[in-house]
Design goal:
The protein has 494 residues and is an alpha/beta fold. The chain is built from 15 helices and 23 strands.
Length: 494
């Protein structure tokens, strides 16, 4: 593994990019010949021009996936056989961690220290976990009477459309692909146009691992043509999506306009972090910084609303501001960097706009400045607003950047009321030394995951997803297989 900043920069200089569509086991140009630039947000330089898929390419990819599913080259394999291929893919990911990590870092600005130790290794882990699980799921026999045998079988759905975001390009693709492929489906993956490069390499590695041609197809492109075409396609059996609530609703509309395909959205978040007076203030402040600054705040479950008991608000805010010093902003290829640039100029403009809004709604306690480095103005400092009214826009709307809104509360009921007063319900955190309070408050919070005395707890063993307008899809854990399979009853009279 590369161990120094100089080594990473040298590797980056020699990196080669895959920039075609991956359909039926091979790279190809887009049907209409279109291309789009993918840009390094750290320096505003073009990395490469990628084939721009449109409806014609989605048609070709879906047709390839359907042929592969129908002839059984993958769907007809036993769970143990599929497991072996996916385990080989996990091993190949581990062998290629430096290159995969660099692709995500260059494509969307993620610090190399994270992409090389969290994202890329995590992708290998999630493929391995789902591969190991698939041959341990049993079908059922219903308790019928004598002379009847009713079997309840879990079967793959067919062709899965997967649309993933730019904030965790490799990991989010893996979260969808691992269970979808393990259950025997074929997949058409559309990566975000801001970050398509690691998905294209992943498809190549899957082919090298032994995944048959046509089982995994990757079509980079834009939402208005490739994404829309996938959502409307009449031969796609299910659509899985991670991204904004607005786009998640579009995919549900597309389903109704086409073939009523299943849609599994994991969408926006405005996660509250509740800190009670008896909490470990130092640890809570350190983790509150992590909860909003990791991945530059570009995390759907980021703890972007900090609710603090009024009696410790001043002390906590001071400790929190001090904790931001451990998150230096800088070149994502520098191992000392913990916060890189935001993904693109348009998104940085949006986050800066929310900072301007926040200045009129609350008191700016820290940061708030936009910086230009190496020709890019996508760098935004850790930003903390204090005494934010619960109805302020920066307390209610998803910013998706390093902006934290602190709101005081007076008692437990007040904290729960403020926390639940949101259209989102993806995640929440609770800090207290009182076990009864921790369990009681967790019960009353409307969120898919509640982390107690930590933030954003996550494991392959537990489901990830939300409530309300955070969507209802669940990734990870045994429950993730439910999205990619159907229950078929076979009833035999004898």
């Amino acid at each position: 593994m590369t161990t120094s900043t100089a080594d990473w920069r040298a590797r980056a200089a020699g990196l080669k990019f895959r920039n075609g569509l991956f359909i039926d086991g091979a790279f190809r140009d887009a049907a209409k010949g279109g291309r789009f630039d993918t840009v390094n947000p750290a320096n505003a330089q073009v990395l490469t021009a990628v084939a721009r898929g449109t409806a014609d390419d989605i048609d070709a990819a879906v047709a390839s996936a359907r042929r592969a599913f129908n002839d059984g080259r993958w769907s007809g394999k036993s769970p143990a056989e599929r497991k072996e291929v996916l385990l080989r893919l996990a091993a190949l990911i581990r062998e290629n961690i430096p290159e995969l990590a660099l692709l995500d870092t260059l494509d969307m600005g993620k610090p190399i220290g994270d992409s090389s130790t969290i994202d890329a290794p995590g992708s290998a882990h999630f493929f391995q976990w789902h591969a190991e699980a698939i041959d341990k799921l049993y079908d059922e026999i219903a308790p019928t009477g004598r002379g009847d045998l009713a079997m309840i079988r879990r079967v793959p759905l067919g062709v899965i459309g997967a649309v993933v975001p730019w904030n965790f390009p490799l990991d989010m693709a893996t979260w969808k692909l691992a269970p979808a492929l393990a259950t025997g489906n074929s997949v058409v993956l559309k990566p975000a146009e801001q970050s398509p490069l690691s998905a294209l390499m992943l498809a190549e590695l899957a082919s090298e691992a032994g995944l048959p041609d046509g089982v995994l197809n990757v079509v980079p492109g834009f939402g208005e043509d490739a994404g829309r075409a996938l959502g409307l396609h009449p031969d796609v059996d299910a659509l899985v999506f991670t991204g904004s609530t607005k786009v998640g609703k579009l995919f549900m509309t597309y389903s109704g306009q086409s073939n009523m395909k299943q849609v599994w959205p994991e969408t926006g978040g405005k996660s509250p972090n509740l800190v009670f007076a008896d909490a470990d203030i130092e640890k809570a402040a350190e983790m509150a910084a992590f909860g909003i600054l990791f991945n530059s705040g570009e995390v759907c479950s980021a703890n972007s609303r900090l609710l603090v008991h009024r009696s410790v608000q001043e002390e906590f805010t001071e400790r929190l501001i001090a904790a931001t010093a451990a998150w230096p902003l800088g070149d994502p290829l520098d191992l000392a960097t913990r916060m890189g640039p935001l993904v693109e100029k348009a998104h940085a403009d949006r986050v800066a706009g929310y900072i301007d809004i926040g200045r009129s709604e609350a008191r700016l306690a820290h940061g708030g400045e936009r910086e230009t480095r190496t020709g890019s103005d996508c760098y935004i400092q850790p930003t903390i607003f204090n005494n934010v009214p619960p109805d302020a826009r920066i307390a209610r709307e998803e910013v998706f950047g390093p902006l934290l809104a602190i709101t005081p509360f007076d008692d437990e009921a007040d904290a729960v009321r403020i926390a639940n007063d949101s259209e989102y319900g993806l995640a929440a955190s609770v800090w207290t030394k009182d076990l009864s309070r921790a369990l009681s408050v967790s019960d009353r919070l409307h969120a898919g995951t509640v982390s107690v005395n930590t933030v954003d707890a996550l494991s392959a063993m537990t489901p990830f997803g939300g409530m309300k307008q955070s969507g209802f899809g669940r990734d990870l854990s045994i429950h993730s297989f439910d999205k990619y399979s159907a229950l078929k009853t076979v009833w035999v009279k004898y």
